[in-house]
């Protein structure tokens, strides 16, 4: 039985540790934990930069600062660890936390390759299925919130008819200063460019709404920035349902926008935002002849719960206490990474990539660039 299964969480707060004390930890993870009040207790933080870690702990009232993650896990025995470090160490730190019996909430991208993700899955506990734990959930907060929940249900129920055509857009802008951070813009440290590090959020939401994809054809380009990875990618994606989608990812776009549009038989659904969406960011346009009372029902999204780290954290804590697999973990957490790998393979090899074809032994299973940095851009 995994160690975490022996931890009685019925009558005490969930003990949390945060690995990595940069901006995402300060601005998203710690505030989300604080918003849960006595439900959780942030007991420690880890960073290889001791001064940064101590500053984070002092500012956030976190009791213990560590520069050794193994020591933190052994001494504090957290129930949950937030991984807020660069992608190159996600696999190592996730496996270490799971091995210590802690659940994991890992920032995107989950890791640098499908091979690394397989190692993270293998380190999970459980009863061979979806019960027990510890489990590792990936931070894909855009699929959470009232708007996404409502649209997902409408599409699943075919209330608006079959989904036919979709567009997924992450067109952001990053200047040269963004790439001054040493781990950005190179395959070994980051695992990919904006497809991997930025667009994965909207692609994950698209997959969560439309279900499994079947094939992808893609191009990548390095149009502005002097880096190894792409700064633009485009793709055509066919879904198992028959729906077809275009996907565009960019960090060279002055007018920044995150957008999903899905044309169904009886209505078009659109989401336009940047880093977070709320009910008012979703728009539904009916097809001619659709009754107004149906449209009113579709647009009723209930209480406004914006997408956020907190919106994902609440059910994650509930799943941890119940010992059940959370969303965005295991196979569910791998779906967007598989699409990213297929997009890169298609671009680098100038071929159509089918779902399920990238497995152990395929160079694109071990690295998003297939081990040949620069080729294909």
Largest sheet: 8 strands, mixed
Cα Rg: 21 Å
Q: What number is the mean pLDDT?
A: 95
Strand content: 15-25%
Number of strand elements: 14
Q: What structural class do you assign from the helix and strand content?
A: alpha/beta
CATH topology of the largest domain: Dihydrodipicolinate Reductase, domain 2
**In sequence order, what are the helices and strands, one letter per element?**
EHEHEHEHEHEHEHHHEEEEEEHHHEH
Describe the structure.
By secondary structure, the protein is α/β, with parallel strands linked by helices. The chain folds into two domains: 3-138, NAD(P)-binding Rossmann-like Domain (Rossmann fold, 3-Layer(aba) Sandwich), CATH 3.40.50; 142-306 and 337-366, Dihydrodipicolinate Reductase, domain 2 (2-Layer Sandwich). It contains 13 helices and 14 strands. It has helices at 23-35, 50-60, 69-76, 90-99, 114-122, 146-156, 187-190, 194-197, 200-210, 292-299, 309-322, 330-349, 363-366, and strands spanning 14-19, 40-46, 64-66, 80-83, 103-106, 136-138, 163-173, 213-221, 232-239, 244-250, 252-264, 267-273, 282-286, 353-354. An eight-stranded mixed β-sheet has the order 13-12-11-7-10-9-8-14. The protein has a six-stranded parallel β-sheet with strand order 3-2-1-4-5-6, with helices on both faces. β5, α5 and β6 form a beta-alpha-beta unit. The chain is globular and about 65 Å long. The model has no long low-confidence stretch (mean pLDDT 95).
């Amino acid at each position: 039985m995994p160690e975490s299964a022996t931890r009685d969480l019925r009558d005490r707060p969930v003990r949390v540790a945060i690995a990595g004390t940069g901006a995402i930890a300060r601005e998203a993870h710690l505030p989300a934990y604080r918003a849960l009040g006595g439900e959780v207790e942030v007991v420690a933080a880890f960073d290889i930069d001791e001064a940064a870690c101590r500053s984070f702990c002092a500012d956030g009232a976190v009791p213990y600062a560590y520069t050794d993650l193994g020591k933190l896990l052994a001494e504090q025995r957290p129930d949950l660890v937030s991984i807020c470090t660069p992608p190159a160490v996600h696999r190592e730190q996730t496996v270490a936390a799971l091995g210590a019996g802690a659940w994991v909430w890992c920032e995107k991208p989950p890791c640098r390759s499908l091979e690394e993700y397989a190692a993270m899955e293998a380190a999970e506990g459980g009863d061979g299925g979806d019960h027990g734990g510890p489990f590792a959930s990936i931070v894909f907060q855009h699929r959470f919130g009232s708007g996404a929940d409502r649209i997902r249900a409408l599409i699943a129920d075919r209330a608006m008819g079959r989904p036919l055509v979709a567009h997924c857009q992450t067109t952001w802008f990053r200047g040269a200063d963004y790439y001054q951070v040493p781990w950005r813009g190179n395959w070994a440290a980051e695992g990919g460019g904006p497809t991997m590090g930025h667009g994965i959020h909207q692609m994950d939401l698209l997959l969560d709404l439309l279900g499994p994809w079947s094939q992808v054809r893609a191009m990548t380009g390095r149009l502005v920035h002097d880096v190894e990875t792409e700064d633009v990618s485009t793709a055509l994606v066919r879904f198992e349902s028959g729906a077809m989608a275009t996907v565009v990812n960019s960090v060279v776009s002055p007018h920044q926008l995150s957008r999903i549009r899905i044309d169904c038989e009886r209505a078009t659904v659109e989401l336009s935002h940047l880093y977070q969406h709320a009910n008012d960011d979703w728009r539904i346009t009916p097809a001619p002849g659709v009754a107004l009372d149906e449209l009113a029902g579709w647009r009723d999204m209930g209480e406004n719960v914006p997408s956020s780290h907190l919106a994902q954290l609440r059910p994650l804590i509930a799943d941890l206490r119940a010992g059940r697999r959370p969303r965005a973990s295991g196979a569910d957490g791998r779906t967007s990474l598989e699409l990213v790998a297929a997009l890169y393979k298609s671009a680098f090899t100038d071929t159509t990539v089918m779902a399920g074809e990238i497995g152990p032994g395929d160079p694109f299973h071990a690295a998003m660039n297939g081990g040949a940095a620069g080729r294909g851009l």
